Each structure stands twice: as C-alpha cells, then as structure tokens.
Amino acid sequence: MTVEQNVLQQHSQKHQQTLLNQLREVTGTTDVQLLQQALQVSNGDLVEAVAFLTEKNAKVPQQDEATYYQTAQITNDRYISVGSQADTNVIDLTGDDKDDLQRAIALSLEESNRAFRETGITDEEQAISRVLEASIAENKASLKRTHTEVWSDSPNPHERKRMENCPVGLKNVGNTCWFSAVIQSLFNLLEFQRLVLHYSPPARMQDLPRNQKEHRNLPFMQELRHLFSLLVGSKRKYVDPSGAVEILKDAFKSSESQQDVSEFTHKLLDWLEDAFQIKAEEDREGEKPKNPMVELFYGRFLAVGVLEGKKFENTEMFGQYPLQVNGFKDLHECLEAAMIEGEIESLHSAENSAKSGQEHWFTELPPVLTFELSRFEFNQALGRPEKIHNKLEFPSMLYMDRYMDRNREITRIKREEIRRLKEHLTVLQQRLERYLSYGSGPKRFPLADVLQYAMEFASSKPVCTSPVEDIDTTAPPGGTIAQLPPPASAGEQPDACVSAEGSGSGLQASQQQQQRVSIHKPFTQSRVPPDLPMHPAPRHITEEELRVLESCLHRWRSEVENDTRDLQASISRIHRTIELMYSDKSMMQVPYRLHAVLVHEGQANAGHYWAYIYDRHHQRWMKYNDIAVTKSSWEELVRDSFGGYRNASAYCLMYIDDKKPFLIQEFDKETGQMLSGLDKLPPDLKVFVEADNKLFEREMEEWDALQARKLQQEKLALAAAAAAAAAASVAVQPMSTEPCSPDNTAPSAAPQHDPEYMEQQSPSGDSKHLQEDTERAISKAAAEHDEKSPEALLNTAMKVEYTRLLRLAQEDTPPERDYRLQHVIVFFIHNEAPKKIVERTLLMQFADRNLGFDERCKSIMKVARAKLELIKPDEVNMEEYEMWHQDYRIFRETSVFLLIGLELFMKKSFVEALMYLIYAYQYNKELLAKGPYRGHDEELIAHYRRECLLKLNEYAAALFETGEEAKVNTGLSIMNDLVVPCLPLLLVDEMEEKDMVAVEDMRNRWCSYLGQEMEPNLQEKLTDFLPKLLDCSTEIKSFHEPPKLPSYSTLELFERFGRVMTSLTMGRTPADGR
Prior knowledge:
Layout: H1 3-27, H2 32-42, H3 46-59, H4 65-68, E1 90-91, H5 101-119, H6 123-142, H7 148-151, E2 169-170, H8 177-187, H9 190-197, H10 212-233, E3 238-239, H11 242-251, H12 261-283, H13 292-297, E4 299-307, E5 310-318, E6 321-324, H14 331-339, E7 340-342, E8 357-364, E9 368-374, E10 376-379, E11 384-387, E12 397-399, H15 408-436, H16 447-458, E13 464-465, H17 467-470, H18 496-501, H19 506-519, E14 532-533, H20 543-579, E15 591-602, E16 607-615, E17 620-625, E18 628-631, H21 634-641, E19 648-657, H22 683-732, H23 742-745, H24 749-752, H25 766-784, H26 790-810, H27 824-830, H28 835-846, H29 855-870, H30 878-906, H31 910-928, H32 938-962, H33 965-987, H34 993-1007, H35 1016-1030, H36 1050-1067
Parallel strand pairs: 2-3, 6-9
Antiparallel strand pairs: 1-10, 4-5, 4-8, 7-8, 9-19, 10-11, 12-15, 13-14, 15-16, 15-19, 16-17, 17-18
Helix pairs in contact: 1-2, 1-3, 2-3, 3-5, 6-11, 6-12, 10-11, 10-12, 10-22, 15-20, 16-20, 25-26, 26-27, 26-29, 28-29, 30-31, 30-36, 31-32, 32-33, 32-34, 33-35
Protein name: Ubiquitin carboxyl-terminal hydrolase 25 isoform X27
Keywords: Hydrolase
Organism: Danio rerio
C-alpha cells in the first residue's frame, strides 16, 4: 500500500468515525454496530440515518443479530463505545431537548455535514468551540458587571501569593471549571508533564504543510507548555489559563452553548496526539514513529464473539473506556457488564449453538487507564436530559487481572463459579425471606416472632371484668352527663334526671327523660359481651393442652431460629467467597492505583466540576477546585464522588499502572536525578517563569509602596487632627491661676495614641460614662482616707475601681448583660491580659483630662499622668498594649455589626441585615481564634447569617417564579450580588453541617427549575446563573466593603445589645441552631 493510499484510508476511517460520533451524540445510541448499520442503510446520509435510528428506538424492534454482532474493522479511532447496558427507553445524551426533534436534528446534521465539507472541522470540534466561546463570553461579560468586585482578583497581591510547596490553582475565566479539572489531572501525571514541558516544535516547520490542524495544535502546545511551566514554578497562588483557552477558541468558530465535558477530554488528547505525531515523524524518518500520547493513554482489547455458531476475533484500540452506571453498585460490576454482551455460553462451548454474544479481553493496558462514567441520560418519556445520581463505589487500588486476555480461561471458570454461587445465593435468600416475612396477607412478620407471640398468647391467663365496672357509665359517648342516665332496674322509673336539673315543670322533665331513654338504651343496642378479658387470652385451655402447645411452640421456634441462622451464615459465606474469588496472588498481578477523580455537581444542564488528585509524595489527596487547592481525604472524596449523596458524583476515573513509578516520579530521564521546582523546566521555560515571577514581585513591591504612602498620609492626617483638637481644647478651657505643668503644655506621645473609648476631647459619650465611674472610685477612696496624699488616693481609687470591674468580670451573666461592653478591663480580665497592660489601662482612665474640675480630681489626674510619663519602654510592651486595645476595638465593632444585623433581621430587612451579619461572623471568628472569650457566641451568629441567606434565596426564587422580566432580574441580582458571593463563607468550614445543608437546599431549589417549562429567555438566564451558584470553590473572592458603623456610647451599646439579646431569648426555639 502506498503512502497516499494509507493517508486516504486513514482519512476515510476518521470521517466514518466522525459520522458515528455525530449519530451517537444526537440520538444517544451507544451501540457501534447499530450506528454502523444505520450508516450502511442510509448510504452515509446522516438525515436518513437519524430517521432510521429514531424510528427504530420508537418501535423498539428486535435487532438483527447478524448485524448487531458484526465487529467493526480496526480503525485509528481511540474512543470506541464498548458494551451497552442502557435501558431502551433511556438514551445517553447530554444535549438540550427541542420541539419538533426530528426536523431540528435533520437541519442540525445537514448544517454540520456542510460545515465539515467546507472547513474540515468536525461537529465534535465545534462542540468544544461552543464551550470555549461561552467561557470567553462569560469572562468578558463579567468585566461589564456592576458588581465586578465580587468576581475580580483581590487587589492585594500578597493575598494571591503562593504558599511554599503548595500546588498552583487555575483561575476560572468564565465557566471553565471543566478545563481546570482535566488540565490539573493531566499535569499531576508527571510523565505527561515531562512530555509537555520538553515538547519542541518540528525544526522544519517552514517545510511542513501548514494545514488547519498544525495552525491549531502547534500554538496550543506552546501555550500549554507555558501554562504547565507556571504551574511548576510560579510564585502566584493561581495562574490564568486564558492563553490556552483563547487558542482553542480561535481554532473553531461557534457560539452555541456548552456540551458534555467528556468530549473536551476526547478532543484534547486527540490534539495532543496529532501534535506529538508531527514531532515523532520528524524524529524517526524511515522508521515507524512512536507517539508518546498513544503509548501513555491508549490500550488494546480483543473482541471475541460467536454469531450463530461461527466464531470471530478482532483487536481494537481504546482510550477512555466508557462504562454505564445505571443498575450497578461498584466499578467491577460495571466492567463485568461492559466486557460481556449477549449470551456467552457458546463462546467456550464445543457445541454448535444458535446463541450469539461477544466478550472483550484486554490484550494491552495503557499506563494511564481512564474510565468514563456515563451519568447523563436523555429520558425520552420526560423529554429532557437527566443526571444519574445512583451510588457507584470504586476502589483506590484496582486489579485488572480478571479482564486480561492471558487470564481468559481462568476468568471464565471463576465467572461460571460466581454465576453458580449467585444462583444458589438467590435460592437461599428466597428461603430466608420466607422465614423473615411470614404470612399470606399484605402484612408479613418474622416467623420466629409469630411463634413467640403465639406462645405468649397461649400462656396468658384471662382476667375478666364486669362490663359495668370496666366502663364508666356516667360518661356517655357525647361527653355530656345529662344525655346518659345511670342504669336503672327493671321496676324502677329513671327519674333521677328530673331532680338533678332542679328547674322546669315535672311534665317537661318527664317528656325529656322519656326522649333520652328512647334514644340511648344502655346495654341493649351496644351491649358489651359479659366476662370480656382485659387482654387477649385463651377462654378454655387445660393444663395438659397448654403444656403440649408450649412444648411444640418452643421447639418450633428454636428450629426456626436455627434455620434462620444457618441460612444467614450460608449467605454470608457465599458473599465472602464471591468477594475473595479474585484475591489469590495470580489474579493480583496487574495493579492500578487511583490517581484522579473528576467530579460533577449539579444537574444535566448545568453544574460545577472539580478534581481530587492523589499526591504520592505526601501520601494524601488534594482537592483542585479552580483557584483553590486544599488538602483533602479519602472520606471527603468518597462523599463527593460515589454519588447517592447530594448532587455530586464522579464522571471520570483516572488510574495509573502501580508498577510504573516513572509516571509520578520527578526525575531527569537522561541523568536519573530527582528534580523539583524550576530545575524541572527546560531553559526557555525557566526564563519565561522567572520573568513572570519578577513581574509579580514588582507588583507586590508597588503595592507595598502604595500602602506605605497611604499609611504615612493617614498618620499625618491624624497628627494634624490631634493638634487641631488639642488647640481647640486649650482655647475653650478656663484660665487657670496655677502655673503650667509640663504635661499641660503639649500632649505627650503616649496619650496621643490612646484608645478613643479611654479618652475623649468632649465630656460626652464614652468619656462621660468613664468619667463618672472614675469620680465614684475617687469619692469612695477619699471617704475611706480623707487625709491621704493624691498619690495614695490614686492607688486606693484604682484598687476600688479594679475590684468593681473584677466583680463584674466574675459574674456568670447571660448574653443580655455582657459587661465586656461596659469596660475594656472586663474584657482584659476575661481573656487574662498581662498585669502590666491592665495597670496601664486603668492608669489611663484616671489620667483623663476630662476628669472633674474639683481640686482633688485634678490633682489625682496630674499624678496619674506623671506616672504614665515615668513608665519606661521596657516595663510595658507598647506593641502588645496596642494589640490588646485593637482587639477590644474589633470586639466593639463586631458587637455593633451583630447588634444592627439582628435588629434588621427582626424587622425582616434581610437585604440590609446580611452584610452586617456576614462581617459580624468574620470578625468574631478572628477574635475567637485568639481565645474563647474574645468574641460572641459563634453558633448564634452562624444561625442568623444562615437564616438570612435562606430568606433571601427564598425571596429571589419567588421573584424568578413570577416570570416577569423586572422581578426575574431583581431576583437574580439578589442572588448574584448578595447570596452567591457569601456561599464560600459557608462552605469554607465543612465541619459546620448545617451550613452545608443550607447551601444544598439553596442549590436544589434553583436546580429544580431545570426540568420545568419556561420561556427561552428565562431558560437562558437560568443557564447563565446556575454555574455561579454551583461553584464549590471555597476561595473567598474580593467582597463588598463593610457597612459604615454608627457611633454608640458605651452605655447605649450595652443597653441596645441587651435588648436585642433579650428579644432573641424570648423568641428562640430549640431548633433554631443554638
């Protein structure tokens, strides 16, 4: 065969596979043979092929076995669908449903076919382009939002700085979480990483035909190298993949919506294969080129089949191996079902049989084995795509021996043994069910319990009661005593009611009594049987009968219990035997370790993607969620990946050959030395990364310089304001006859920076309250020691004040009376502040210039200020002093945030309340990290923060349901501006289960709209909004500025806070979260 013929054959095979992929995508049919039959019947006409398949699916006829089991010829396609276990009523398809489906499909395929003939771009490639176009459009649109601060990078580059040895994340540039998940999984395959980093374009590029593939693949490879090099050595916490996305976007022109992300993985590997093929052909002229992508990701299997007694064998190549999820509980069950199709008895039988079937046996497994889990189906009955949320377990270590061709005979023997054991197991389970659910009626009970109940009944003694004694005859059914007279004898007139009424004539009473007697005839119409037992018991049974019956029942019950135990033990042994069927060493020689799990959360039409990747070096799982890369665990992976819990489940599993450590080891292939960091990069990429790092370092330096200038300007402004305030204070003070002391000439450095709640320039607010406390302490000290010097009075007054504050701190008070809000020293005592800090703070209280103007207070103030001047820098650490007072300032701010947030919440002003509660929780969390008594009740704040978000979500959803344009926009604005930016705050601490449940409730509310009929514009808005809502990133993005707080005096803050807490205590229920 000539080179030209080979090229033409490959092109023909590629084109045929493209048609098969289009048919599979549109109709949902995964059976290759059936698709090929459709193309043969239609002579390659896609419209007729679709009509053939849709008509066939509608009628569900029996397929022609001769056609179904024909095996395809060997092709170069790597994405062969092997095995189909889907229900005929459910088609695997992730596209959107349309009205008049048949006509739309025909037009779509006609357009797709024409586009392929004109441009050479396949429909699958256009699908990838639609993903990229949507991503770029979303990224550009986000720049035009009014709330760009929510989605933009943090302006502080230090917050975007990479921590040492922490993996680098990928920025979501607009619905590109799928790109991040796939790229991170491949990047962490170190062999794949080495291949990409050391890829060099062909040396004779100018001599090569510049076809469309090379225009696409070679620049993409260069961009991918740059991206990988940044992931290796960047100093940034995350990097921007827009370059690679832009290359992909420019390769295809389309503007449709996003398709199945698995198609992206298929095409990505296809592009990489093409790029490496060009290089391989150049390096190995005259020899058969080896493509490293093929050797890394592609394997081969042998299709062994029997068709009406005739055997056939064919070898086929595969890449990502597709597996059905529906109806299976674990990965091995999926694989077993995918490896066997139809009736297989004749495959290993010498008899000629009309039965047909085929098996798949792996002849060569790739180093990287990828399973594609089919979790999306198109439900024809409902007319919409659906996601399969069924639980599917998979192991961290997978042994593939049972699926290898070399173990074919052994596996067949074991499969036959397992089949026999399962048949026996079914019989035993049916027998056990008869014991555990005994009876012929709708209600069934365990037979052992039935016998026990019969024995208890037989041994019960009848305890009889008189009907008159057992029934309260004075209380009639209606509950009115006058309606039911007491029982009377036969010769007695029942006239008791007449005397009881005590009013009315005797004739009326007699008539009423006759009426009552005629209506209610006790013990005639509803007579209770005489000698009725209080509980069920035999009426007549002799001692001999009872002894025989008890003996039989006890023996039967023992026999039933023994039979039940034997059946349960036999069932357990069979289960154990099946589990251990492949556990011998000969069937554990092909180990594959789980490397990465790609997870999807959401519904069929929208969702979020992330990846769990195993870090072999640190022996732990890592979670790659866009820019957030965090430590994880196998337990978290199981919870998010197995399915059956929430809306998250794995859609792709990547296993690696455990006997090939080069896949995940960092070393130089030429020297064998272990490499890390920038040493792994070739010279050109090292220069590229170092240049980017220098840019980032310069950005941080410019930021630091800017902040230093701002700080200097703030200090100058504060100094000017303090000088102006001091001048104003001197101007308003009365003329003193005493000579000026040094402390009155100018403010000292220390008081200049004292906390505002310790000293104010006007005798109002906090200063006035503090002044009154100080004067009371001085008066009490003076009453005890009238003739003491000012210094002695100061010491005594400070002791009096400290004793009072200590008493307040030691009280066990409810939240309604939080004395920390009354005085900073109570806060210090609660948190065990150093003694020197407390003493200086108390001394500052007595050194207040606004203290009373009587001579005694003034003299004490002067002594206190003199003592402050004498305190040496080494006696009190001023940085520590400022830190403690800063913490108290934050505590007061947190209290104000909480106070206002709760007040607004109780007024049902949820929009206004949210930001106050958000910042109250964040500030409070920072305080509690330093000590348990530095903040408020965290559960209380978390509860109202959570409730506020739920209320807003409910309100926004109600607006969306109206369908009115203005209300829908308002609802989505509330979600985009307020709710969605706050979700990472609830997800960042996954130990808070109530927050996680609340987030799931909000997401489920919006995902429930996916299956409902709505206007196209509403569907478009919903599709645009859902990826933001379903983004599971816990990265806290730039946020709204905190609300401006009003100024409260200490007394006002204490009282208002107490009133709010009292209201909450009175209205709180046990279920509200505290």
